[in-house]
Amino acid sequence: MTDTFFRRTTWAVSCALLILSLTQDCYCTRDCHGPVVALLAGWMGVMVEAGTLLNGIMEVFQSGEFAVKQPLGATFTWLANPLLLASWLFLGKEPGMALRLSLPATLLTLSFLLFGQIINDEAGHYTRITGYGPGYWLWVASAATAFLGSLYLTYGKRKEALTNAG
What we know:
This protein is mainly alpha-helical and 166 residues long. It has one domain. Helices cover 66% and strands 7% of the residues. The chain has helices spanning 3-21, 35-63, 80-91, 95-111, 134-165; strands spanning 27-28, 32-33, 117-119, 126-128, 131-132. It has a three-stranded antiparallel beta sheet with strand order 2-1-5. The protein has a two-stranded antiparallel sheet with strand order 3-4. A hairpin with a 6-residue loop joins β3 and β4 (126-128). The longest helix is centred in the C-terminal third of the chain and has 32 residues, at 134-165. 30% of the residues are buried.
């Protein structure tokens, strides 16, 4: 299998998994939520949680105590999306950079499992996560495919070159 074919296959499978994930429910609270809204509005959740974190840091300077009034939820994992997209851009020419981008993307997708709640509305109210739909697992698979493909292109090829040289 040539590098070009492997790169294109990795990219196509990762893209297809992400696109397929957008057709499925991704997580459930009181009811299950579609991924398109989560993908398009996720950046707003990141901003709300970043603001909450910043307020807690500012509280350190005012009172000497770190006080986050709202618990931080799962919306920071949305940052896996721009990392995944950037890794796709580097997959063709710089698999090492794709690896450095897809690893945190994969870890961020998996870290969603560590959170028990997520922002539910624009007002910043949190709701307990009660389950994970197929869209979530397809999202994880998309990032993992980009990671494993770039891992092979970065280190698997080096091992082959060393084996062939010796």
